Amino acid sequence: MSASHAVVIGASGGIGAALVEALGDEDIAVRGFARSFVGADHIDLEDEASIVAAAASLGAAPDLVIVATGLLHDDAQGPEKSIAQLDPAWLHRQFAVNAIGPALVAKHFLPLMPRTGRTVFAALSARVGSISDNRLGGWYGYRASKAALNQLVRTAAIEEKRRNDRSIVVALHPGTVDTALSKPFQGNVQAGRLFDTGRAAVQLLDVIDGLRLIDSGKLFDWEGKEVSP
Questions:
Q1: Strand partners, 167
Q2: d(CA 214, CA 111)
Q3: Other beta carbons less than 10 A from residue 128's beta carbon
Q4: Would you tell me which of 19, 73, 122, 168 could form a disulfide with 78, CB atoms 3.0–4.6 Å apart?
């Protein structure tokens, strides 16, 4: 990869931890942040002050930042199957983690990235955030919050291009990865389409490595194919 200093947000998760390992294997200096970490490596996407502190703790300016976080369900709440199941508090939390949090990371980390040369800011999104691709319904909060993330990425990409005309800001769909997020829903995955975290990380880094300047602001899947909004 062309990156020299990378940051991974969500480094304690399945994909995030695998990204940290894969970047290290390529001899790229990488710093991982996560909500479960303590001290300078702690970050909570629902707490802007922790995002500010994490950004301030960086030494070298990162030329690659990956936000590898997402919330589909927790121990008490799963994705909605119908509109009757909409809950304001759950919707608020999904937007906080899936859309607002990554946007705040962009707010505080993008200004630290170099003003010249190729830089990449990537946030993990999901194909189900595509409005045009929604044919099954359900999963209201997750779909809507990921759609919001895709729009936030697009908007940030336009602004960042004015600061550095070689910057790339994208959303990435990793596919279905064998993590706690997908665990309850893996029974419906087609054969060969459930990826282990190591493979998913390498696939995502390959996509990042192949991005062009005209790709900024878009959503791409693990094969490097653009996903329509």
A1: 119
A2: 21
A3: 18
A4: 73
